[in-house]
Design a protein that fits this description.
- There is one protein chain.
- The protein is of the alpha+beta class and 451 residues long.
- The protein folds into 3 domains: 153 residues, no CATH class; 103 residues, Beta-Lactamase (2-Layer Sandwich); 147 residues, Histidine kinase-like ATPase, C-terminal domain (Heat Shock Protein 90, 2-Layer Sandwich), CATH 3.30.565.
- The strands form 3 sheets. A 6-stranded antiparallel β-sheet has the order 3-2-1-6-5-4. It has a 5-stranded mixed β-sheet with strand order 8-10-11-13-12. It has a two-stranded antiparallel ribbon with strand order 7-9.
- β4 and β5 form a beta hairpin.
- α9 packs across α11.
- The termini are far apart.
- It catalyses: ATP + protein L-histidine = ADP + protein N-phospho-L-histidine.
- It is a multi-pass membrane protein.
- Keywords: ATP-binding, Cell membrane, Kinase, Membrane, Nucleotide-binding, Phosphoprotein, Transferase, Transmembrane, Transmembrane helix, Two-component regulatory system.
Length: 451
């Protein structure tokens, strides 16, 4: 007992003489926990993004198939050929079925990747039946749900096939997508994170055994930098994983491009390309939002000739404007230079002009500039649908989109104006809007002139 008391006494004396050991021990616990928590959070984000992307991928696949399936619902052989091509190109697909609309309890199987099912009556399980019910109630959407079979994770999705002359449901597309590959990647990442965590703990223990002053403020700073680097690595990985499935979509485009397509078929092909573009835009917006929120978006402010930059942007939008029957006007005038990040300024201007073209059904889009005191103002005006005073209050919020009959067919993420406003503010500028419902809209950005 005396020996134990002596050990405790020496330990207490050592702590009194070296109070930094308490902080060292705290760091020995806090750093691994922080690393573990950060790793878990980013792996969770990566998994959520992967799930969202897989659902989008299923939706695009079914969108493409339904576009031509509605015209060939009575031609099982034609649909069978297309299903085989899709199944061959999509390794993760475990099942693809085309059903005719039934009595609500059973459905005739027209085409299936399992040939034995063709010509039979399918009695769906409760999950499949609920997805079919949702698809029937909203024919324009794909509905998906996650399920497990023998320990493996899958996504099951259903989409209604409507008649060519009405919204009447004539059939359904059912797909099962295996998440084994994505889960394997996630599992490897988790194992790597645990391995790194174990190595860090071992290193801390070894250093504690050699000396009490194991971690000082400098080493803590280095570890925090390492965590930050790993955060960047995870974001890069997520971006890569999000963009990879776009290759499959492009593959479908190439596949249809090899066919002798009618005008209608060419329209389908255009829809595929449009969907891929939307996905790419969504990914870019998500990454921009993450960088802005975390303060990781860099701005290299340099003098810029506004007139030249706007002339280039106006020229790039001439063809899209002409395609819609719009006039795009810009009168180049000499202006003082402004100090902005050239790439970010171009992104801001492209977003504002692009929105003006997109939301203007007829008339014109005008880009004008002026000098207001010591600031250079840029105004993008259109004769489009206009924005009400109530809608203007939320215009620069994340994910806000104006929803009405006029905008129903116009796609977008609701992130563009939020990203634009944040970039303008980061570069020392201001952004505002002037609009009258039914008359048009003016977006105005201004920056200090270079003296």
């Amino acid at each position: 007992m005396d020996k134990i008391l002596q050990i405790f006494s020496r330990g207490a004396s050592f702590v009194r003489n070296n109070p930094q050991i308490i902080f060292t021990l705290f760091l020995a616990v806090a750093v691994p926990l922080a690393f573990f928590f950060t790793s878990e959070q980013f792996l969770k984000i990566a998994r959520e993004q992967q799930n969202r992307l897989e659902r989008s991928r299923i939706g695009v696949l079914q969108d493409v198939f339904v576009l031509f399936a509605k015209w060939h619902i009575g031609e099982p052989e034609f649909l069978r050929d297309r299903v085989r091509v899709i199944a061959k190109e999509t390794e993760t697909m475990t099942n693809f079925q085309v059903l005719r609309a039934g009595d609500g309890e059973t459905f005739p199987v027209l085409v299936s990747t399992n040939k034995d099912e063709e010509g039979t009556m399918l009695a769906p399980d409760s999950l499949t039946l609920s997805l079919i019910g949702f698809a029937m109630s909203q024919p324009g959407q794909s509905f998906a749900s996650e399920y497990f079979d023998s320990g493996m994770r899958y996504w099951k999705s259903a989409r209604a096939i409507t008649a060519t002359t009405s919204n009447a449901t004539v059939g359904f597309v059912l797909t099962d997508l295996s998440m084994a590959q994505a889960d394997a990647v996630s599992h490897r990442n988790i194992q790597n994170a645990y391995l790194i965590l174990a190595l860090i703990i071992i290193l801390i223990i070894v250093m504690l055994a050699r000396q009490a002053r194991i971690i000082d403020y400098a080493s803590l700073y280095q570890r925090l930098k390492e965590v930050d680097r790993m955060k960047d690595d995870f974001v890069s990985m997520a971006a890569h994983e999000l963009r990879s499935p776009l290759t499959i979509i492009r593959g479908y485009t190439d596949m249809l491009g090899d066919e002798k397509l009618s005008d209608e078929g060419k329209g389908h092909l255009k829809n595929i390309d449009h969907s891929a573009s939307q996905l790419n835009s969504l990914i870019g917006d998500i990454l921009d939002v993450a960088r802005l929120q975390e303060g990781r978006m860099s701005f290299n402010l340099q003098s810029l000739d506004v007139s030249e930059a706007l002339a280039s942007i106006a020229e790039s939008f001439q063809k899209p404007a002409e395609t819609k029957g719009l006039k795009l006007l810009y009168e180049k005038a000499p202006l003082q230079q402004i100090s902005v990040d050239h790439d970010r300024f171009r992104q801001v201007a492209i977003n504002l002009v692009g929105n003006a073209v997109k939301y203007t059904p007829k008339g014109e889009v005008r880009i004008s500039t002026s000098v207001e005191g010591e600031r250079v103002a840029i105004r993008v005006s259109d004769t489009g649908m206009g924005i009400s005073a109530e809608e203007q209050k939320n215009l620069f919020q994340k994910f806000y989109r104006i929803k009405n009959e006029e905008t129903r067919e116009i796609t977008g993420t609701g992130l563009g104006l939020w990203i634009t406003s944040q970039m303008v503010k980061q570069m020392g500028g201001t952004i505002g809007v002037e609009s009258i419902k039914g008359k048009g809209t003016d977006f105005i950005i201004s920056f200090p002139a270079v003296k």
